[in-house]
Specification:
- The protein is an alpha+beta fold.
- The chain has a single domain, classed as tRNA wybutosine-synthesizing-like (SSo0622-like fold), CATH 3.30.1960.
- It is 41% helix and 25% strand.
- The protein is built from five helices and eight strands, in the order ααβββαββαβββα.
- The chain has helices at residues 3-13, 25-36, 74-85, 107-119, 158-185, and strands spanning 40-46, 49-54, 64-68, 90-96, 99-104, 126-129, 135-139, 144-150.
- A four-stranded antiparallel sheet has the order 1-5-7-6.
- The protein is elongated and about 55 Å long.
- 29% of the residues are buried.
- The mean pLDDT is 91.
Length: 187
């Protein structure tokens, strides 16, 4: 077994360290397909998520207060917001796009992934590491972020929140479509 295959085996046998503790269902098939190919494996992935989180600039334990990996209803979001606001913390609403990191055996393999990603609708796929093996990052552009609570009050009215939530749910779906297109393009 060459060193790439050994690293692949080691990485794929590790316990999932994600916040949900398991493969994200919307990107699972794509990751399996990539990992079944000889010259590639995934190192991390997320199909996109809506988050209610502490409005802080530093990463810390307990930063994410609610984490949704699927579309969210207005009723659910409003209920969760009312619960969180009781904690008197500044909160922000955030939509993070889909992201996937793919280790490639060679630079030619990385170029192959970059070309497929460009043709599948991903904007600005890039090589983020040239260490032992190139790592390609596919990062969606579907983002939304704004303060939603000053610690005592919800800063936006229901009408605005409904509009933003509708847009966030649409952006999640757009990311899932790109995941599907990219998956179909892999052979």
């Amino acid at each position: 077994m060459d060193s790439f295959q050994q690293r692949k085996k080691d990485i794929l046998s590790r316990k999932d360290k994600s916040s949900i503790g398991e493969w994200d269902k919307k990107i699972f098939k794509l990751c399996n397909k990539i990992n079944s190919l000889e010259n590639f494996y995934t190192t991390s992935s997320c199909s996109g998520r809506i988050i209610l989180m502490l409005d802080e600039n530093k990463k810390s334990f307990g930063l994410f207060l609610k984490n949704y990996h699927d579309k969210v209803s207005f009723g659910k979001l409003k209920k969760d917001l009312k619960e969180i606001i009781k904690k008197n913390k500044k909160i922000k609403f955030k939509l993070e796009p889909c992201i996937i990191h793919i280790a490639c055996k060679t630079l030619d393999d990385a170029k192959f992934i970059l070309d497929l990603a460009n043709n599948s609708g991903w904007k600005n796929p890039s090589i983020i590491s040239l260490g032992k093996n190139p790592i390609v990052e596919l990062n969606g552009t579907e983002r939304i972020e704004f303060p939603i609570s000053d610690g005592k009050n919800i800063l936006v009215d229901d009408k605005f929140l409904k509009i933003v939530l509708k847009k966030a749910n649409e952006k999640l779906e757009n990311g899932w479509k790109k995941i599907g297109i990219f998956e179909k393009s892999l052979k």
